[in-house]
Amino acid sequence: MTDAxxxxxxxxxxxxxxxxxxxxxxxxxxxxxxxxxxxKDDAEDLAQDVFVRVFQAAERYEDRAKFSTWLYRIAVxxxxxxxxxxxxITFLSLDRNHHDSSERSSDNLEALFSSxxxxxxxxxxxxxxxxxxxxxxxxENQKTVVILYRYHNLxxxxxxxxxxxxxxxxxxxxHRAKLNLKKRLLTVMKQxxxx
Amino acid sequence: xxxxxxxxxKKMSAFQDNALSTAELTAIEQHLKECQKCSQxxxxxxxxxxxxxxxxxxxxxxxxxxxxxxxxxETENVPSQSAVRILSWIPAPAVAAIALIIALLSGIYLxxxxxxxxxxxxxxASEQEIGEWYTLNSTDEYRGESITDIYVSLISEDASTDx
Lengths: 195, 163
What we know:
A: mainly alpha; Rna Polymerase Sigma Factor, Chain: A; B: mainly alpha
């Protein structure tokens, strides 16, 4: 049975059918939310909200587009709203010493990479943090396209449909995102002699 | 097709994504073989792109369906979604301030109510007495006596009631 057929059953009130869809897409959606938020707890909460929204909107579902296109569109919208809300809370926060947990001074970064850190796992965690930080630093429109393209293997056409933009807009955003990521990550990679 | 460096750099992202025509792909490949500067740019882009694999990935999510199912049930039991949505737009400090004002006003009103109610209970018996003292029967007849006589008669009445 295709996703669209299952979704039409959900539209008719079949909750078990919905469970099938959730099991199929839970990890891609959780990981999408993780790339976007950079936080595991937020990612799982957001992913749950995505599926709740899908269930609530089931009555309005029509078999005009792929189910995954619709699903990712909901995920993108929820993640963008979450990100904007978080930025506003940070901006309004009375704690002037508030720092994003993924931010550190470049001095600390250099020390980290120049020190003879024994644990491979620690190095890996740091690399993950740096990469996530680089992704987080991208403007929203570039970040969305990079995540969908790089981590979900969606084509330019599929991304264009999800975001309701042209294919050339997808290409252009991806191009600028890569330049920004290169600028951000290259310095660190050269310091660690990875390139 | 000859490609200059500026054009190659501009198309490098699409080249990486295989999103060009065969002719363009071939031309860029040829240029990268011949141009060291562009070749270095290409290697850097490839390295950075590969680096993105380092991000954390979640590989399992136990009980995810039961959490989703519970959230769906919770949202279906909420009486007024629009009211909740409206309230969620009010910032938390404002909500706290409103709650505090309501609590203070409630406390003041309750205090006043309790104090009035206590006063009434305390004097309930004396009201009855007052009512008896000031009934028309006791005051509607003026006897024409002297003040001393009236005083003595009053004292005598008090003495008899005290017994």
